[in-house]
Amino acid sequence: MKKYLPLVLIAALGFACQAPEPEPIDYTTMTDAERLEAATEIARSTIMVDGHVDLPYRMKVGGFTLQREILDVSVRTDGGNFDYPRTKEGGLDAPFMSIYIPAGNQQIPGASKALADSLILMTERIANAYPDKFAMAYSPADIEANFAKGIISLPMGMENGAGLEDDLANVAYFHSRGIRYVTLTHGKDNLIGDASYDTTGTHGGLSEYGEQVVKEMNRVGIMVDLSHVSDNTFRDALTITKAPIIASHSSVRKFTPGFERNMSDELIQGMAQNGGVMMINFGGTFIDSAYAAGSGKVREHLVNYMAENNLSRTDSAFQVYAEEYAAANNPFPTVQRVADHIDHVKNLVGVDYVGLGSDFDGVGDSLPTGLKDVSMYPNLIAELLKRGYSKEDIEKICYKNVFRVWKAVEDYAASQK
User: Fold this and answer.
1) What pTM, to 2 d.p., does this model score?
2) Residue 84 near residue 136, CB atoms below 8 Å
3) C-alpha dihedral over 349, 350, 352, 353, to 10 degrees?
């Protein structure tokens, strides 16, 4: 006769055979070299989204057109902050390509939309020219699929709602062209609302047209981006929107008092209550108010040195001196300061509401030491690990937070159909 073990005993034996949960890694006890190695592994094995990279406009300025190609970002490039090799080194998987509309275009009817269309085509050309390296992405699912293939995703956001011109139908049009967020304003007030850099206060916040734009963005599934807007526009948009917002490339005003382009604690808290995410800008003027003063002093000295020595910027003697002087009198903040901004958001509202929005290729040479281009994200991750952030925290910052917002925007739009 067969003998059977009681079910309770079988269950107990099965439980006992299960492998114990691994102990969480304490990154704070590692050496700097060990921690950087761990950070690099995390960066390359985790989806990483950057909310704002200005490559399309850099290509336009550099001479890249639909007919000819000057800047080939499929290989390592001289200058700039972005290209394929450096992107892979840094573990970046989904840089939002900024379809940037300068405020000057607002003065010419039709010019903003025309520029937006050309920059979208330019971005698509990258994906079409190098399909083994780049692919367009219109959703978190697209990014996940591209990541599984080892391909860099190119989602797109329009920087400056002036591209919508004065036609609400252009919201749906640009969604059909692949735009997945619109930064409502840029350097000047526009038809949508007031900008942080402009003191005119044309509308006192969102205009009536701007309110309709926000509602239409909700309806079609475009994320409302509140970087660059005035405080009043920010508050108005939070009141109007039915879906979470983003700030694609903004930092914390605490470290830059009086700089309205950054977000105050009040706005950060409002963003979190809305369920949104702010993505930290790496630019020197965004992360440390001392940068502007320090860099100004360096520039002033170098201008005087040229005059006193009858030199020009193109003279090799001046270039050697300028490089040495700038290095010795380095005005740049460091990667630690970027981590301070992330810390502030985490401590104020929680780690679920912060991400990365470097502004690479958009802030010139102001980038901090240790974050000069897309190859250097591991330096920031290592600093966060040193401060006690877990791997799960890093994953939220790299992509889970913005994916949560993006999917919520998609879900709301689907509910309106």
Assistant:
1) 0.89
2) no
3) 30
